[in-house]
Amino acid sequence: MSSTDAWALHRPGGRDVAIMAVAVVGVSLSGPMTALVAAPALAIAFWRNAAGAAALLPVLLTRERAATRGLRWRDLLSSVVGGLFLAGHFAAWLPSLSMTTVAASIALVTTTPIWTALAARLSGVRLPAQVWWGLVLAVGGVALIAGVDVTVSWTALAGDGLALLGAIAAAGYVLAGAKARQTLSTSAYAVVCYSTCAVVVAVAALAVGVPLTGFSARDWWLIAGITVVAQLLGHTLFNLVLSTVGPTVVGLAILLEVPGALLVALVLLQQLPPLLALPGMALVVVGVALVVRASRPPTVVEPLT
């Protein structure tokens, strides 16, 4: 099946909406929980991916074992590419948080659905104008929630560039996943993708001297919780619907993590939301609604030259 078919924009059904709702809750819990962990960010990224792959391996070897018969290396290639992009996302975005403002980093890294939509358009999928308006409104809403404060310096500029690179890498991750899920089960894709990401992140952590062990019991429990809510209920459920709704809808749904995390932080951490949070949330919801409403079986055109 071609990338045009895999990257098409489809209106989610009731089952897809329910699955994505649970996934949004999962990833929304990730940020506030990660803020409570003293362990380095790269260590968290390694363990959530390694543990996520280990948790799904029994499913792959038992319930979905039949789906692995006859698989060839090229069938797994998109999964490996997805894992490399996911590792690139972590490697680019995490350093940006300390180089530019957190607000600017979040606003830039959440441009992921715009990049997936551009890739779909370049592959030959014609997207309605309403989809582009929805994407702009949703990303603009995230920027309002983050309360972007522009900082002019070479370091901040480099951090902004890394955050943008993290968004592009995240788009590559969901695009590769959409292609892989055309031929692979969710567990087969996730095990290969998460394992690849864990290996690359581990090598990067060792290269820069970031420890992967030696944390407190509290940190280990929090990392286990992050693995369950963010990796298994979040990423894996999003990967489950990639083959039915397409990467742009999934990327847009992930944007709901920002207002979701804000609400979770309000309840768990007693952190008051910024002044522009409510209008920002409204823009995100309206933007998502516009894209979903405009979603329909795509019209394929010749790729742009």
TrEMBL record:
UniProt GO cellular component terms: membrane
Keywords: Membrane, Transmembrane, Transmembrane helix
Ranges where the EamA domain occurs: 20-146, 158-292
Sequence intervals crossing the membrane: 17-38, 44-61, 73-94, 100-119, 131-148, 154-176, 188-208, 220-242, 249-269, 275-292
UniProt-listed Pfam families: EamA
Xref: InterPro entries: EamA_dom, EmrE-like
Domain of life: Bacteria
Record PANTHER family: ACYL-MALONYL CONDENSING ENZYME-RELATED, EAMA DOMAIN-CONTAINING PROTEIN
Family: Belongs to the EamA transporter family.
Name of the protein described by the UniProt record: Threonine/homoserine efflux transporter RhtA
